[in-house]
Design brief:
The chain is 29% helix and 31% strand. By secondary structure, the protein is of the alpha+beta class. The strands form two sheets. It has a six-stranded mixed beta sheet with strand order 4-6-1-3-2-5. It has a two-stranded antiparallel sheet with strand order 7-8. Strand 7 and strand 8 form a beta hairpin. Helix 3 packs across helix 5.
Length: 188
């Protein structure tokens, strides 16, 4: 059994695996549209973490992990708990780089669908950036999640020019440099 990571599973690998491969899945785009009230926020003040949204033209790069033979269910149970905040497991086709023979089949993917209670959905990038700057939870600052993901994608997945991720990183870094003095413009 393989598991595909596109968010914290890329940079926070706290589970055993036999092998890992860089590659991509098709038909999705990565977005900071999932709320986190357990890891990067709290109830009433959620952080924002990534999920995948359906996108016929989309391609998301990440890392797939082959779970240890004989321990698949144990590791999956742990991941089910780790990803409990609105995520469900589905299976997808993973395209490793370089290609594997035979290719992994039944690659597990944790996705926060739009009908889960923690789904926040789309918002202007500025609003998402403000929420990330001001959120933290039991796993730490929401900014750490964003920066760790952006650094990992830039380092191990240079093919991925994820405009949403990198634009958000730039906005958040600007806010932090300016002491989080973002202005709210009012009209009326």
């Amino acid at each position: 059994m393989w598991v595909f990571g596109y968010g914290s599973l890329i940079w926070k690998v706290d589970f055993p695996y036999e092998e890992k491969r860089i590659g991509y899945i098709k038909g999705f785009s990565r977005r900071f549209w999932q709320g986190s009230t357990d890891h990067r926020g709290v109830p009433g003040k959620p952080g924002r973490v990534v999920t995948l949204v359906e996108d016929p033209e989309g391609c998301v790069w990440g890392v797939a992990y082959k779970l240890p033979m004989g321990r698949e269910q144990e590791v999956k149970t742990y991941l089910d708990y780790r990803e409990k905040g609105g995520y469900q497991a589905i299976t997808v086709t993973f395209y490793p780089r370089p290609p594997l023979a035979p290719p992994p089949n039944q690659t597990l993917l944790y996705i926060g669908s739009h009908d889960n209670p923690d789904y926040l959905g789309p918002a202007p990038l500025e609003e998402i950036a403000n929420q990330i700057v001001s959120s933290s939870g039991q796993s730490g600052q929401n900014t750490e999640y964003l920066f760790e993901l952006a650094d990992a994608v830039r380092t191990i997945l240079p093919e991925d020019s994820d405009a949403h991720l990198f634009s958000l990183e730039t906005l958040v870094r600007e806010r932090l440099q300016n002491g989080h003095k973002h202005s709210h413009t009012q009209t009326g």
